[in-house]
Specification:
Elements lengths: L1 E4 L10 H15 L4 E4 L9 H9 L2 E8 L5 E9 L4 E5 H5 L17 H12 L4 E6 L9 H6 L3 E3 L18 E3 L11 E6 L11 H5 L7 H22 L11 H11 L4 E4 H9 L1 H6 L3 E9 L8 H12 L3 E8 L13 E4 L7 H6 L1 H19 L1
Parallel strand pairs: 1-2, 1-11, 5-6, 6-9, 9-10, 11-12, 12-13
Antiparallel strand pairs: 3-4, 4-5, 7-8
Helix pairs in contact: 1-13
Amino acid sequence: MRILLAPDSYKDSLSASEAAAALAKGVMRAAPQAEIDECPMGDGGEGTLDALLTATLAEQRIAIVNDALGRACKARWGWDPESQTAFIELAEACGLQRLSTEERTALYSSSYGFGELIKIALDHGAKRLVLLLGGSATNDAGAGMLQALGVQLVNNEGTSLSAGGINLSDLKQIGWDKLDTRLHEVIIEAILDVDNPLVGKQGASAVFGPQKGATPEEVERLDKAFCHFADVVSDNLGHDYRDIAGVGAAGGLGFSAVAFLKAKLCPGIERVMSHVGFEDRLSNADLVITGEGRLDIQSLSGKTPIGIARQAKQVGVPAVVIAGHLGAGWEKAYEEGVTSAFSLADGPITLNDATSRCGELLTTQAESITRLFIKRK
């Protein structure tokens, strides 16, 4: 019996690699003779860098950059010298996991540190940038990233905008003279875990702002600020990018990646599956177990479990999801190829307990699922 373990990370708990190891422990309890293939996954969000480092044998590099609140932090990135490709994960520099609940501010967090990582990659001679957009603490439409790369965002007083998406409402002028010219010479691919537009009810602020600390009133203010930013960009570039699917990724950073960096937007899970040779690994499996922190209606927009389930459905392999929480609309996952889905909780439990016990709970669920699968076989 061959079991493919392909989880994403469990936010604030385990990396994808750690989750795969916890699942493997449970499988071995139930079926010591099983052939286990641990295949950590990602869809563009935090943890995707780990999956790509493992799959591509790229070198891990570490840099000191600014986090979402402007504090110095260590951020990892990947470098493949042979292809001169840099893998840069937004969450490494400006990830939500770096901030406590009390520190999260959608109004004033900045993507500046992500721009710093891009510059570092260019300094290394990168000819191709793979930008992993997900898990961000920021909601600034990529303004901080642009400023780090030399774009001047100026208000009515002629001074540079302060950090944070809310300040985009004061944008008067965009200066291009100091934009890093090396960006014109590289291929840029932006890997996304969502397909939201920039503004509106399904936009970056409305959908993701609350988890970054925004109140309903602040969401409305941020959306207006983004609309103004999109207007100014449209006036400058002659094209309106706000409604393109995916530009709302990473607090709207996808918008600036397309408009200013000419990045190609790519569905995250599909790109990562290609990198790790997932199709071949799945063809040799009798069962695939995947999962992440939450499974709900938003998961259908391109999250890891759904991408894996769709692929598994095509080749007739059962796909089981273990989620930290089953949210509203998760049942739609059955239509996408999910065979069954389970919540981690083994009873009434607080979020802190679930977070601290994530590995133990994954192991227990994997053991139960494997025993059931053996019985079914």
